[in-house]
Amino acid sequence: MTALTLVRGDITEQSVDAVVNAANSSLLGGGGVDGAIHRRGGPDILAECRALRAGRYGEGLPTGEAVATTAGRLPARWVIHTVGPAHTEDEDRSPLLASCYRSSLRVADELDAHAVAFPAVSAGVYGWPLDEAARIAVDTVRQTPARVAEVRFVLFDPRAYDAFAARID
């Protein structure tokens, strides 16, 4: 059984086996969590992302999928990059958001990662309402069989922390 924990803080400071990056499809860095991970982790992450773009993910990483790279200078061993969907009122994209968590846990199992830190995927610039993002994240992690011993949701914003805390308690 995977233990769920909650931390208010900076995901780039987590000493875990793998940190999940809420990446954009280019894998080449961006804003928010993605930018923070690339800045703190250093050039090794970007170099591996460029290699992925030159090979298997020439068109970019599809929404809902996940892939791992080194963690560079982060205190983690790996970064698991996943591309969350943008929220829209016109289409139910929640299966894609759930896929981000399932795919990341699958990659974590492939890496034999025991502790994984997740941000609130898609709850920033992609506009996902916090309560719904927290429900999908927590329910998906609880329902996904994985060998991961701990999933740590690391939330920078107090509102995001409160939304996840309401789902975990």
Q: Mind explaining what this structure looks like?
A:
The protein is of the alpha/beta class and 169 residues long. It has one domain: 3-Layer(aba) Sandwich (Leucine Aminopeptidase, subunit E, domain 1). Helices cover 38% and strands 20% of the residues. It has 5 helices and 6 strands. A 6-stranded mixed β-sheet has the order 1-6-5-2-4-3, with helices on both faces. Helix 4 links the parallel strand 5 (115-118) and strand 6. Helix 3 (94-111) packs across helix 4 (130-143) and helix 4 crosses helix 5. The longest helix has 18 residues, at 94-111. The relative contact order is 0.22. The mean pLDDT is 96.
What's the structural blueprint in terms of helices and strands?
Elements: E1 3-8, E2 18-23, H1 32-41, H2 43-54, E3 66-70, E4 78-83, H3 94-111, E5 115-118, H4 130-143, E6 150-155, H5 158-168
Parallel strand pairs: 1-6, 2-4, 2-5, 5-6
Antiparallel strand pairs: 3-4
- CATH level 1 class label: Alpha Beta
| Count of extended strands | 6
SSE run: EEHHEEHEHEH
How many domain modules?
A: 1
Helix run count = 5
> Which range best describes the helical content: under 10%, 10-25%, 25-40%, 40-55%, 55-70% or over 70%?
25-40%
Q: What general form does the structure show?
A: globular
Helix/strand structural class = alpha/beta
Strand content: 15-25%
- Biggest sheet, spatial arrangement of strands: 1-6-5-2-4-3
Quick summary:
By secondary structure, the chain is α/β, with parallel strands linked by helices.
